[in-house]
Design brief:
heterodimer; A: mainly alpha; about 55% helix; B: alpha/beta; 2 domains; four-stranded parallel beta sheet; 8 strands
Chain lengths: ~130, ~270
């Protein structure tokens, strides 16, 4: 097994999703509320993984713009579930070098009077692991 | 039927103890008015707010497993109110029932007297109203009908999707909150953004994006005539409240309107 094949296997294992099943129908991108913020669109995630362009996907804005709203997961007709693929990719990065999209030091100045705890715990789980 | 009040284990979650106290207190008083009691489970731990999608994530699911197992030991269903807690607990419960690897590893770690295998039934408060009390019965208990109010139900994401696991309602065309609104004597307003994401946790670092989302939600719902919105999610509430939309209308936790209709809002 090549290094790439190993990485793809790991993504498949963590996400429970098979990028090879994607038929590029674009339903995920059409459903994605954050697609305009993404440089790589949800229907392209599977291709990036299969091609081995994992670093590009990981370094993309897209990896950190997914809202976790499950619209693509609900609507994918092939059960590829791009939201899970991008989350798995994100986790591989966070496990290797630590999630660095949100630092605890940043939090005090982001706080407002009415900011719910749910927002902080969700952001930390999404951005750091 | 005094003395036979139905008791449920209740998982409030971190936010309901702090910034979303209205969601909690109006639910407790409404429950009593409807003949059931929310018994807060002791020493519950934060669900983490986000369900860990990684199939090899175990530690991040354990707080949910402990709460689920506690309810099992009480022989009670477990009630949630916060959309995020509901989502996380329900999905972890599904894992414990159906994913052998997660079940085995979580049980090995927790060391309960009897292994936990997803026995607890997780119910959102709205599901109790629909499936246990019944919206017809709820309507009969309304003393202060919200007549003339046109209310948009804002579902957001977390109670609906993925539909197969959350099993809350049709994720693309839900009606539980609309039926709830009718039971309170008000008129539900159906609009297309009701099950679309508000932007969620991205408001922490990217508030401009969530403002675009919430503006669309207000524009859409008020365009169909809504004079207020209801939600079950503290984060949706926060993001909607932060909106600069010209069409902004008040947003309430669904429990506040419930308590008002049941005449138990004061003193809650």
């Amino acid at each position: 097994m090549t290094e790439l094949e190993k990485k793809i296997e790991l993504i498949k294992e963590i996400s429970g999703s098979d990028p090879y099943k994607c038929m590029r129908c674009g339903k995920c991108t059409a459903s994605c509320p954050a697609y305009s913020e993404m440089d790589i669109k949800p229907h392209q995630f599977a291709s990036y993984i299969i091609r081995g362009d994992l670093d590009e996907l990981v370094e993309s804005k897209a990896a950190w713009k997914c809202l976790g709203c499950f619209a693509c997961i609900e609507r994918c007709p092939r059960d590829v579930q791009p939201g899970k693929l991008v989350d798995a990719t994100r986790q591989i990065v966070a496990r290797q070098r630590g999630g660095d999209y949100l630092q605890p030091e940043e939090v005090p100045e982001l706080l407002t009077e009415d900011l719910p705890q749910q927002l902080l715990v969700s952001a930390f789980r999404r951005y750091r692991r | 039927m005094a003395g036979s009040i139905m008791k449920y284990s209740y998982y409030p979650g971190c936010t309901l103890k702090n910034k979303a106290q209205d969601l909690d207190k109006y639910a407790r008083s409404s429950a009593l008015a409807l003949g059931f009691e929310l018994v807060e489970i002791p020493e519950w731990q934060c669900c983490g707010g986000v369900y860990p999608l990684g199939s090899d994530e175990i530690a991040t699911k354990l707080s949910s497993v402990r709460a689920l197992n506690y309810a099992k030991e009480q022989g009670q269903d477990l009630i949630t109110l916060c959309s995020a807690c509901h989502h996380v607990l329900k999905r972890v419960n599904d894992d414990m029932k159906n994913v052998e690897d997660i079940r085995t590893r979580a049980n090995n770690y927790c060391g309960f007297e009897e292994a936990y295998a997803g026995e607890t039934k997780v119910l959102h408060f709205l599901e109790v109203l629909r499936d246990v009390i019944g919206f017809d019965e709820l309507a009969k208990k309304v003393v202060n009908p919200l007549e003339g109010k046109k209310i948009g139900a804002y579902y957001g994401c977390l109670t609906l999707r993925p539909g197969k696991i959350l099993d809350f309602d049709d994720p693309e065309n839900p009606k539980i909150m609309e039926d709830f609104i009718r039971a309170l004597g008000a008129e539900p307003v159906i609009y297309s953004m009701r099950n679309e994401c508000c932007g969620g946790y991205t408001s922490l670092k990217d508030p401009e994006f969530t403002k675009q989302r919430t503006e669309q939600i207000f524009d859409d719902s008020t365009g169909f005539g809504a004079d207020c919105l209801i939600t079950a999610c503290p984060l949706c509430m926060f993001n909607l409240n932060k909106s600069d939309a010209k069409t902004k209308v008040p947003v309430y936790y669904f429990t506040e309107l419930l308590a008002e209709a049941l005449g138990v809002k004061e003193g809650a």
